[in-house]
């Protein structure tokens, strides 16, 4: 897939105010500071489409970007650590769950995970949540340029083992990416392109 246009549409904290366009949506979410904004900018080939920050927890709204005028990339707030009050965190975590449980246009979520780290409890809990709510999702390992190829394989294998131990029948589809080197970009966009083909062929919207 070639990204010809990538346009910011709206930011808000209420699912009811999300775009009404009958287009498929792909939501990107992960722990704060996992490299989500950098990944989005790399995928869309726009340096400043999503705001990057050294301060974890900067994204606190549902951000819609229309890609090629036929699908939406949705940038969601990170879960976990963020320099916001407990009350504020409860609010945006609520609209995260509202989005996943009520947004009909959502066709796939991408759960971002820092491949350098051991499986984090909060990531495993969120993956379990998506499984329970039957939200289709893939895992996107980020920051692959920070470790060796051998270590990448070890980390993926360890994650697979952890998920199988948590009663998953198999490892969800996953992608290994590096925003710095562009790794995984083509594979992710090909996946989205394939899902879009199925969505439009089946007249799901």
From TrEMBL:
It comes from the Bacteria. Residues 22-198 form the EngB-type G domain. Its cofactor is Mg(2+). Pfam families: MMR_HSR1. Keywords: Cell cycle, Cell division, GTP-binding, Magnesium, Metal-binding, Nucleotide-binding, Septation. One of its GO terms (molecular function) is metal ion binding. The keyword Nucleotide-binding applies. Gene3D superfamilies: P-loop containing nucleotide triphosphate hydrolases. GO terms for biological process: division septum assembly. PANTHER family: ENGB-TYPE G DOMAIN-CONTAINING PROTEIN (PTHR11649:SF13), MSS1/TRME-RELATED GTP-BINDING PROTEIN (PTHR11649). Necessary for normal cell division and for the maintenance of normal septation. Belongs to the TRAFAC class TrmE-Era-EngA-EngB-Septin-like GTPase superfamily. EngB GTPase family. This is Probable GTP-binding protein EngB. It comes from Flavobacterium saliperosum.
